[in-house]
Amino acid sequence: MKEQHSSKESAGYVFPDPRKTVPPKDVKNEFVHDFVLSWKEMLMRLETTALQIESGTGDDDSLGKIKRILHTIKGDSAVVGFPAISDVFHRAEDVLEGLIESSKCPTEYLLSVKDWLEQVLNHIHMDGADGSGAAIGAADSPPAAEEKGRNESTMRVLIVEDDFTGRLMLQKMMSAYGDCHIAVDGKEAVRAFRLALDSGQLYDLILLDVMMPEMNGQEVLKEIRRMEDEAGIKGLD
């Protein structure tokens, strides 16, 4: 039964009580709602991929897919204010990392992690972030359309994030401070930076995800620094 996973040890670990895993009261419900929907979809992919590995029908990147899911949920939960979720998924990353080279998958443990987070999300969705009994998102009306002239800043922001929910949250947060441009992967980020460099309209801030397929954040950063060096841009220029 799923209820057992919240109280018994799994792989030597006792999961936190899902009923007490709630975000801080100052977190906007619209953000939590977006994360709940995104995480539920990722948990379905986590279960499907883990079971494919267990049955021998997974592909060469199956463990990599699971690793990216764990990493994404860990990072998202830390940003939105769920330290307990972040801790659980950080540990799950460590468990998986120890087995990647042997191509083994701790399926039972991963399914326990999935079941635990589903309990957390169901509790949050039913009871609301503030414990009022309202569903997440129900208490808050959709954000009003941006007022004309509200953003008078000339700040230019590049958001580099391969996860849809992460992009949405960052764009909502940063749009109050400047014009936001989006890149969905590392290669697109490099192209966006090159265009900005060539046009003389450099970005004031780049929010760069670290773990992305094909070209990760560290590789993007090195390429950006290389282009800056070529253009004579140093330090805080």
Instruction: Give the low-confidence spans.
Output: 1-11, 127-152
Secondary-structure content class: mainly alpha
State the helical fraction.
40-55%
Beginning-to-end CA distance, first to last residue:
58 Å
Radius of gyration: 20 Å
Q: What does the main sheet amount to?
A: 3 strands, parallel
Strand content is 5-15%
- Number of separate strands: 5
Our count of helices gives 7
Query: Largest beta sheet: what is the strand line-up?
Result: 4-3-5
Helix/strand order, N-terminal first: EEHHHHEHEHEH
Q: Could you tell me the mean pLDDT? A: 77
How does the overall form come out from the CA principal axes? globular
Keywords for this entry:
3-stranded parallel β-sheet; 8% strand; 7 helices; 5 strands; globular; mainly alpha; two-stranded antiparallel ribbon; disordered N terminus
Overview of this protein structure:
With 237 residues, the chain is mostly helical. Helix content is 52%, strand content 8%. The protein has seven helices and five strands. The protein has helices at residues 29-55, 62-80, 83-100, 107-127, 164-174, 186-199, 217-230, and strands at 9-10, 13-14, 156-160, 179-183, 205-208. A hairpin with a 2-residue loop joins β1 and β2 (13-14). α3 runs antiparallel to α4. It is globular and about 55 Å long. Residues 1-11 and 127-152 have low confidence and may be disordered.
Write the layout of secondary structure elements.
Elements: E1 9-10, E2 13-14, H1 29-55, H2 62-80, H3 83-100, H4 107-127, E3 156-160, H5 164-174, E4 179-183, H6 186-199, E5 205-208, H7 217-230
Parallel strand pairs: 3-4, 3-5
Antiparallel strand pairs: 1-2
Helix pairs in contact: 1-2, 1-4, 1-5, 2-3, 3-4, 6-7
